[in-house]
Amino acid sequence: MRVTVAGAGAGGAAAVAELTAAGHAVRLWNRSASTLAPFLDRGGVEYEGVLGEGLAVPEAITSDMAEAVSGSEVVLVCLPTLSHVAVAGALAGARAHAIPVVLNPGHTGGALEFAQAYAMASGGEVPPVAEFHTLSYIARKYQPARVTVTGRAKFLRLGVLPGGEAAAVAACALYPVARRVPDVLDSSLANLNMVLHAPGAVLAAAWIEATGGDFTFYVQGMTPGVARVMQALDAERREVARAFGHDLPAVAAEMQRYGTVESWVTDTNDLVGAIASGEANRRIRAPDSLSHRYYREDFGHGLLPFIELAAIAGVDVPTAQALYRLAGTLTGTDFAATGRTAAAMGIAGMDRAALLRRVRG
Q1: What is the C-alpha to C-alpha distance for residues 252 and 218, in angstroms, rounded to an integer?
Q2: What domains does the chain contain, in order, with CATH numbers?
Q3: What percentage of residues in the chain have a pLDDT greater than 70?
Q4: E strand map for the chain
Q5: How far is it, in rounded angstroms, from Cα 190 to Cα 186?
Q6: By C-alpha distance, which of 117, 115, 138, 109 is closest to 127?
Q7: Distance from C-alpha of 4 to C-alpha of 272, rounded to nearest angstrom
């Protein structure tokens, strides 16, 4: 398959490595030429970890979107969700209306926001859109041209907007572990990053500022108190999902299915033990500052859209509200100014029935 990977961070680099090795014709796009320069100098993407070790050589490495999507059969967007609106605009500018788009990941409300942003930029045209509930890799770029992949998804929820069948077919061809779910509310409300990141990011803020994040987020930062807040937030997430007709597993059980909680763990209700057991996550460092993406992304594009969906569902989410307000105060940020609001997702003013019609057709 001819694939455009949008994003040259750790997720995009890992996708280039895996998909190239699988025989797909891959082009790598990033809007920042400076991010692409080390890959161009090296002649490709160096990789190590669970995908093996080597150099993946894509057909093209470019910051020109029209060049990147020429002849492409699918665009795989592997970027922080903060970038989705800009990518939608770039694709619309390249008139890529017929090329399916797979958000890897969409996180909370990603497909809805992407489709709305694309329609606004194109004058109403929208490509087929699907989203994974989380990134298909646990990966970090410790060097500019090299990605270290410590985990690969064993399971991905695949949510599809109405009219997005071509995107679903492409997603399953690229990632056979993907499993279609009833709608994008299922995939969006299975975004575990807001559950995993938000409580620790708020409760460990002083430690992060004092040490520059010199501790392991999922081990040293996973204390019983943090776990209790995480469980309360997770209970709210699952209640909102039930209001839309979806019975989602608790956070650690879903992580075990994905592969970041070890298969030998029997008590997934023990969040401290279950999450700290995961080999893929256990060495990941905490945020180095309050401007880290755990704050910039997981509140404005995680908790905020979750709170918006909860309001439409008619479900109270006091833990989510408290964490959201505290994060705004901690960082001095108005997340709603640039975040994933109901308006940004194109669902402002909808009630539960209208939203279900939007996502199910």
Answers
A1: 12
A2: 2-184 (3.40.50.720), 192-360 (1.10.1040.10)
A3: 100
A4: 2-6, 25-29, 45-49, 54-56, 60-62, 74-77, 101-103, 129-132, 137-143, 146-152, 156-160, 178-180
A5: 6
A6: 115
A7: 39
In angstroms, rounded to a whole number, what is the distance separating the alpha carbons of residues 170 and 152?
19
Report d(CA 150, CA 90) in Å as an integer: 31
Query: Angle at CA 134, nearest 5°, toward 341 and 300?
Result: 25
Task: Spell out the residues 6+ positions from residue 11 whose beta carbon is closer than 8 angstroms to its own.
Answer: 78, 79, 104, 135, 136, 137, 139
3-state secondary structure of 35: helix
Q: What is the mean pLDDT of the chain?
A: 96
Retrieve residue 232's tokens.
């309360």
Number of CB atoms found within 10 A of residue 176's CB: 9
- Give yes or no for a contact between 21 and 49, defined as CB atoms under 8 angstroms apart: no
Whole-structure pTM value: 0.95
DSSP secondary structure string, 170-219? HHHHH-TTEEE-SSHHHHHHT--HHHHHHHHHHHTHHHHHHHTS-SBTTT
Q: Is the pLDDT of residue 132 over 80?
A: yes
- The string of DSSP codes covering 55-78 is EE--SEEES-HHHHHTT-SEEEE-
Paired tokens of 128 = 């087929």
| C-alpha–C-alpha distance, residues 328 and 251, integer Å | 24
Task: State both tokens at 112.
Answer: 């809805």
Distance between CA atoms of 325 and 320, rounded to whole angstroms?
Answer: 9
- Identify the pLDDT of residue 173: 97
Sign of the C-alpha dihedral computed for residues 17, 285, 82 and 275 taken in this order: positive
- Rounded-to-integer distance, Cα 79 and Cα 297, Å: 11
Q: Is the pLDDT of residue 280 over 80?
A: no
- pLDDT number for residue 283: 84
Average pLDDT over residues 206-223: 96
The Cα-based distances of 350 to 236, 254, 345 in angstroms read 21, 29, 11
165 contact partners, CB below 8 Å, separation of at least 6: 128
What is the pLDDT at residue 282? 82
d(CA 203, CA 161): 36
**What's residue 277's pLDDT?**
83
